[in-house]
Design brief:
Elements lengths: L16 H20 L4 E8 L30 E8 L5 E8 L2 H5 L1 H16 L3 E6 L8 H8 L15 E10 L2 E10 L8 E6 L3 E6 H11 L7
Parallel strand pairs: 3-4
Antiparallel strand pairs: 1-2, 2-3, 4-5, 5-6, 7-8
Helix pairs in contact: 1-5, 3-4
């Protein structure tokens, strides 16, 4: 099934993107729990609208210049997320899938807050995968994250890239922190990619975004073409 535009006619405003995002997060959690996660792990979808967020970004020790500490109080972004936990010794967050909302891209403080959240996860060794299918806002949150972490410019996506999915894995190599990045550009009318989902530094799972997207579209009886 090709990627649909959930933010413009003919789907919008008759069909609500918030419902689809929440449902897509649920479809991802289902696939992870039923087919992909090893024993001792579980996934839960989380959907919040307009929640307050205050994040401090830990400093990375790496060959690149360290990221500054950052606090972003008073920002009210939407959050559509799948959290993956290791259950041994209590639930420990090991990975997060972030479905970007229009509010995440709307204002500079919201964009910084989203990048800070992802940077905070990576600083803790938590794998991150972000998916941006928002067609009504022009901003690239992957590039915001790269700038925040003071990473090399060759890791940036082209400025014209509005739709994309990127997977991240934080690893310690030779006493330095490194981040592996797997980017993919998206387009309305095209299928979605398969990307690695890192459960910490050691385990990577192949998450088929297309399969979870098709599952979510069929649950909501959405059309098979844009």
């Amino acid at each position: 099934m090709p990627l649909l535009d959930h933010f413009r006619p003919p789907l919008h405003p008759q069909r609500h993107w918030e419902s689809f995002h929440a449902n897509w997060a649920g479809a991802m959690a289902d696939v992870l729990n039923e087919d992909l996660l090893p024993e001792g792990y579980f996934a839960e979808e989380q959907a919040h609208s307009g929640g307050r967020i205050e994040i401090d970004v830990a400093t990375f020790e790496s060959a690149a210049p360290p990221a500054p500490a950052l606090s972003t109080p008073g920002v009210f972004p939407d959050s559509f997320e799948v959290q993956i936990f290791r259950s041994e010794g209590g639930a420990t967050l090991v990975a997060a899938i972030e479905l970007i909302s229009p509010a995440n891209k709307d204002r500079q403080d919201a964009r910084i807050a989203f990048a800070a959240k992802c940077a905070s996860y990576l600083a803790q060794g938590i794998g991150v995968l972000i998916v941006d299918i928002v067609t009504t806002r022009r901003a690239n949150l992957h590039n915001e994250l790269v700038h925040l972490l003071k990473r090399e410019d060759h890791l940036l996506l082209p400025a014209s890239t509005d739709l994309y999915a990127v997977a991240y894995r934080s690893q310690n190599r030779q006493d330095a922190e490194w981040i592996d990045i797997w980017p993919a550009t998206l387009a309305v009318g095209q299928p979605l990619p398969l990307l690695p989902l890192a459960l910490g530094a050691e385990i990577c799972l192949p998450l088929d975004l297309e399969a979870t997207y098709v599952k979510a579209c069929r649950r909501r009886r959405l059309p098979d073409s844009p």
